[in-house]
Design a protein that fits this description.
Strand 1 and strand 2 form a beta hairpin. Helices cover 59% and strands 4% of the residues. It has 165 residues and is mainly α. The protein has helices at 11-33, 40-60, 74-92, 103-120, 124-140, and strands at 94-96, 99-101. The protein has one domain. A two-stranded antiparallel ribbon has the order 1-2. The model has no long low-confidence stretch (mean pLDDT 81). It has five helices and two strands; from the N terminus they run H-H-H-E-E-H-H. Its main location: membrane. Residues 17-142 form the MgtC/SapB/SrpB/YhiD N-terminal domain. Belongs to the MgtC/SapB family. The chain crosses the membrane at residues 40-57, 77-95, 107-140.
Length: 165
């Protein structure tokens, strides 16, 4: 069913984009409630944008295709989305002494990107299942239920840094 009479702008694409928006917002809301560094806006924008990029790569470039001369490979855009989010995720991770902060936030940003990409590819059931699995993990392994620090068998690791005069 085409709403606007233009290829790639039908009800299906709006449902895919809307589903990406809702699923990403659900995950973002959970992170917002837990007062994490990235929240509702960040996760919603990342997931919805990933779906949009995939939809554009599937339908938005059809006017430049020439049969037998110009071909379209939507997987190229998908690969670049993953690469770009990898850089964003790396920027969210901070290491200070023996503590690593932001690892779960970076991983969840990556997950929301995958959910958005799945929606953009038309895999709505898969995206919903992954979102449900995230909530199982998020509530099953809450931070306050894990031990604050796991001790090493041979004591704490010592780091020696050279002193600069």
């Amino acid at each position: 069913m085409v709403i606007f009479g233009t290829a790639g702008q039908g009800l299906k694409q709006f449902i895919e984009l809307g589903t990406a928006f809702l699923l990403s917002a659900l995950i973002g809301l959970e992170r917002e409630v837990r007062r994490k560094s990235a929240g509702l806006r960040t996760y919603t924008v990342v997931g919805t944008t990933a779906a949009l990029f995939l939809l554009v790569s599937k339908y938005g470039l059809t006017d430049v295709l020439t049969p037998g001369v110009v071909v379209l490979d939507p997987s190229r855009v998908a690969a670049q989305i993953v690469t770009g989010i990898g850089f964003i995720g790396a920027g969210l991770i901070f290491v200070r002494e023996d503590r690593v902060n932001g690892l779960t936030t970076a991983a969840t940003i990556w997950l929301v990107t995958g959910v958005g990409m799945a929606c953009g590819a038309g895999l709505l059931l898969l995206a919903a299942a992954v979102t449900a699995a995230y909530f199982v993990i998020a509530f099953l392994f809450q931070a306050h239920t894990t031990p604050p620090r796991i001790t090493r068998l041979h004591g704490a690791r010592q780091r020696h840094y050279p002193r600069l005069a």
